[in-house]
Amino acid sequence: MKKFTIALGAAAVGACAFATTGMAEDAQVKLRLSHNLPTNNALHYGVLEPWAKSIGEASNGSIAIDIFPAQQMGPAKDHYNMARDGIVDIAFYLVGIEPGRFPIVSAAEVPFLVSANDRGSRALYEWYKPYAETEMSDVKVCTMFYDGGGTIHAKKKIERPADLAGLKIRSPNVMAAELYRLAGASPIQMSANDAAEAVERGVVDALSFPWKLVQALGADRVLHYHMDTTLYSLATAILINKGSYERLSDAQKAVIDDHCNADWSEKLPVAWTDFENEGRAVLLEKPEHEVYEISDEQLAEWKELAKGVQDKWSADVAAKGLDGDKVFADLKALLEKYDAAR
Hints:
about 350 residues; D-Maltodextrin-Binding Protein, domain 2; six-stranded mixed sheet; about 45% helix
């Protein structure tokens, strides 16, 4: 980690040195960045705020990024379109939130895929970069990174897939939904904010959530059973409107480019992952909550279902003319290269 920090600092210094020659004459640009979570979530204060601050500093103050949290500018599922259409200049986007829209990148969210979200995010960015040029061609894909990972929080103990049969569960993306469907559940895809309310109203019986978010949104008032394993990690992206980027000076573009790379993809999820792990520790201390481990046999049943999720994904992209097995194997190879595969 020390070598990575030194390398990242050196890159930032290099960008500043390059930028200062032209930055002094650049007019200040204000960019609007939108995301879906509240300000007390680490995505806001531990990920996006430091990234935006670093851009401001590297540009000698000529780029100012105003952050609009908690879906102020629009629903989470609309954030790709908002970046594409210039409603915002920069958007944080959950790449699996719109079923079927971006089939290639969905491979990154197959359950039981990633063991380390920081190194895994570097692999994700490097793997998807060539595909982004066609699948997300109408925006600039700046960085990509995994969230803190999620598990099942329910009104009863869920240990093996059969325990989900007949239950309604909030699913965060297509891949998790397919896992739960194969288990016999009825997955419902909705935003985190809507899901917390839905569980209190009895619309759903369980949630697929990270550890801290289930508490931050109040769903822990109803859900007292928490599976102690990471079933999946969500892939996310920072997207930039192409017109907003093109309006920048060359020096300002250089600063943005220096914040849109594999190094930043690896750095960004660290605070978010730590934040979610803190949530697990809090629930462990609450006597009314049960954070339970599952056996190796039970885990094997979940992983067998995950193979079915991967097979369906491969078949879906094969119908679009892609070799799904090769695409997935390339992702796995990069995860293994960076010691981030499960």
